[in-house]
Amino acid sequence: MGKMSRNKGARFEREIAHLLTDNGWPATRGCQYSGGADSPDVKATTFPFHLECKRVERLELYAAMTQAIGDAQGQKMPAVVSKRNHADILFTCKFKDLLKWLAEQ
Length: 105
Known about the structure:
- The strands form two sheets. Strands 3-4-5 form a three-stranded mixed sheet.
- The model has no long low-confidence stretch (mean pLDDT about 90).
- By secondary structure, the chain is α+β, with helices and mostly antiparallel strands.
- The longest helix is centred in the first third of the chain and has 20 residues, at about 5-20.
- The N and C termini lie far apart (about 40 Å).
- About 45% of the residues lie in helices and about 20% in strands.
- It is globular.
């Protein structure tokens, strides 16, 4: 991965952390504070989903979700937050996880 791609990804992770924080779920960019390769992209203790952030034009959604599942280690529900140029940010999770979360609200 090139430096520009890493920078774009880091900016997107910060953007997601700010959006979560602004909406009541305090968050930080995971690697920024934990430093390890296994750190979450965005660390948000009170947010019920483990987020895998992808800022790409062509997303391999199932590969990204597989990564989120592995990284979540069963502790949180896995989800992918993605964005491509000139498009809205999307949130993808397992439908059964969404139903479970909604039922708890």
